Amino acid sequence: MSVDMNTTPNLPAGERARVPLSQRLGGLGGNARQYGIFGALVVIILLFQVLTDGKLLLANNVASLFQQNAYVMILAIGMVMVIVAGHIDLSVGSVVAFVGGIVALSMRDLDLPWAVAILIGLAAGALVGAWQGFWVAYIGIPAFIVTLAGMLVFRGLALVLVGETVAGLPPEFISIAGGSLPNVLGFVGNADVVTLVIGAVAFLALAFTQVRARQSMRKHNLHAEPVGVFITKLVLVALGIGALTVILSFSAGGTPIVLVIVGVLVVVYSFLMGRTVFGRHIYAIGGNRAAAALSGVSTKRVDFWIFVNIGVLAAVAAIVTTSRAGAAIAAAGQNYELDAIAACFIGGAAVTGGIGRISGAIVGALIMGVLNMGLSIMAVDPAWQQAIKGLVLLLAVAFDLLNKRRAGTR
Amino acid sequence: MSDEARVPLLAMRGITMRFGAVEALVDVDLEVHAHEVVALVGDNGAGKSTLAKMISGVLQPDAGIIEIDGEPVTVPTPQAAAALGVATVFQDLALCENLDVTSNLFLGRELRSRWVRDDGQMEEVARRILRSLSSRIPSVRSPLSTLSKGQRQSVAIARTLIGSPRIVVLDEPTAALSVVQTAEVLTHIEQLRNLGLAVVLISHNMTDVRAVADRIEVLRHGRNNGSLDVATSSYEEVIAAITGAPTEPRPAQHAPLRSSTTAWPA
Ligand SMILES: Nc1ncnc2c1ncn2[C@@H]1O[C@H](COP(=O)(O)OP(=O)(O)OP(=O)(O)O)[C@@H](O)[C@H]1O
Ligand SMILES: [Mg+2]
User: Fold this and answer.
1) Are B124 and A220 inside 8 Å of each other by CB?
2) Residue B264 falls inside a structural domain
3) CATH class of the A30-179+257-409 domain in this structure
4) How far is the CA of A388 from the centre of ligand 2 (A)?
5) Is residue B73 part of a domain?
6) What is the per-residue pLDDT across B164-198, written as a single tens digit (0 to 9) for each?
7) What ipTM did this prediction achieve?
């Protein structure tokens, strides 16, 4: 999850020393705020682990934590890019319902194979995104308005399309959200070997990229973090991935398929945001749109593709949601945009744009998810759950702002 | 030299620009040769920045032509300007506060190795450039939001050293700089001239202008109001051209204008 170790956004301020603090912390994955979110997640997990008498981290609960919250994480990835560029997307919930309807109808009424239906859904998402991106990027209508309109338009179209519940979907499709990777490698004790292998491979790949990055810093005579810090970081990551892997390997199915989907998306998008020119331009546009344009960034093109991208990710969320429900309904995806936006802001994205990370948004989504699950296990009234989540969002952003003010930036 | 002198590297002819009722520029001409620093001076609102933005592809003239090497060109976008070899330091700096120094230096011109940004290479170049400008920037990884106005200006100027521009436009590059830093920028401008570039320097600071410019072009109310050779023209002549006063009477406050960077006698 710390693949996006770009040194760019939001380093801690107040650095005049020979080797600035940010530089010493630089390789750690960016900034103190980032550790803050991870820390908060760990604290919340431990808190609910105690409050639920250890039920929170039961293997099956951890697996369903991912299955229940996959849609938020998928949407938050797209949303954080939109927010970093200084926009917002209010339409994703409606798009989930609309695309979900298209996918379900192509399987049930058009009798298309589920894989084809999925491709059609992704294409529909891209078209929706292109439509909204066109108005935002090339006509210059604020994204708030365009996507507010989109929220109404696509909810309306979903209602037209899905008059009544579209059920009777193929089992392969249903298993996307509920299923797990087949346990082809058997079991060690009760632990699914496939899960253990995936965990090990994930850690090794991550460690490998970090070591490579470090070597390349060395090659260019750049300041890299001290070996001790680097190793500590790797050990912590190993512990995190290790714990998750072991717990999941004891769950009923092993590795949930949605976790693989989310994992792949996180890696791909962290790379996109952290290491590519396109990612850099998204940050630049969010920081100072006019300056980016003067510097030769094609701001319109970047804006357009950001919206196409979130359209496609909304389609992925639609597939997961429809699969999980086992049917398409017109009311699907209600308030999903708010979940995704909240995840981004809890995860450290700035309301003004220019700051935010994929990993932060994922952790934000996990914090909300753990809250949900913990409170549900404790049988807290859903009304109170909602109120508590609202307060967490407010406090997270307030904490962030106060921190920044104390640091003297902004 | 004489060959180059015949065909200016940059020529703007008959440039006219209106913003609604405001005539920002009327039939303005400007020529800059290689190996030449031309200072563009004039009162606030005289149209200097507007003219600069046309060279940089930010604004398009309502009328008039721009030539580079004697060839008429259109500069529809900042990207087009960069492709034509024009680098600009804008008056309002045009930097991204949330990005670090290296990212700002290379913004829009990032180095790549295959599909990935080559951050290591960019950081190395950034360090070398900042060292050559002896800028007082703590680290190339500092986000711009942590830098002072003058440090930001150094970053903006350093941008002109990336890529290999042939024409450099500097819109009030020394406005926020200390004496030492100003001297370094002036040295930098001289280096650009020695490298054979054409430099347009917009400044309100006559001392700076006299120190580095070969020629002074005066704009007044959006029109050409005199072209003066630095070597032969007096301070009073320049002031007169800027203010539109007759040449003889000296302006009341003729004291060193070194410190007053914006205020000119009305
Ligand atoms: N985008 C714009 N819209 C409307 N009017 C403008 C715009 N840009 C410039 N102007 C007008 O054009 C005129 C010239 O402005 P310009 O910025 O070129 O002046 P300047 O010579 O650079 O002044 P200064 O020394 O204050 O920087 C001014 O009257 C200004 O109000
Ligand atoms: Mg100006």
Assistant:
1) yes
2) no
3) mainly alpha
4) 52
5) yes
6) 889 999 998 888 788 888 888 888 888 888 888 89
7) 0.81
